[in-house]
Amino acid sequence: MKTYNAYCFDLDGTVYRGKEGIESAVRFVHRLQEKGLEYYFITNNSSKTTTQLQHALRDVGIETEEFRIYSSAITTAKFISQNYKDAKVNMIGSEGLETALKEEGISVTDDLHPDVVVMGIDRTVDYMKLARASAAIQNGAKLIGTNKDIKFPTEYGFLPGNGSFVSLVANVAGVEPLYVGKPSPVMLEVIQEEYGYGKEDMVMIGDNYDTDILCGIHFGCDTIHVNTGVTSTEVVMEKEAQPTYCYENLDQVEL
Ligand SMILES: [Mg+2]
Q: Do 220 and 146 fall into the same domain?
């Protein structure tokens, strides 16, 4: 396998499982660090702050700078500032997204004529917030969702995810939303834009075919599937679009 300039890792199921590190992945990141190669962590999780994710990585033995961590909240904020300069933004979302927008210097407004409506998971969402977002989009604002997950598993069964609320607003306003989280290529596009990499310089590494591998394929870079999480190698083998490489774990990858 060739050496890349930017190794982009999924987190859950690729670098750790809950609080437990995946040792082969931790060793691989250490090898990248020793060789001075660049790496980034990209996760659809928008509820954790970058600092919380940095601590989660530290807990499994990876010391990393915050700038290498791209949650869907952070990436959404960067995407807006890269593509909608000086935009007025209407937001539905939790603290993670609010902080990310603020750190990018994006001004959040409640008026009904913003340039962009951005939606992340908001556990206090109510009719008025959804009504305002729907109206703003009909007034011409672009609809951007941090991630499209319709539901997520809990001890009570599945509960509504961000994608459910974004779909609701999109249906009312009659538009197609743009999603930032994987499998959309936007997270890799934001990293490419920020550092000036070519697509051939980048590789996307993940356990989940439907999010990580498709994100890389949609973007147009090489991909590595690891058999340490959601999608088994057997299931990946049946897919029409194959990852560039399939490994049991990252100990098998030479640098
Ligand atoms: Mg994963």
A: no
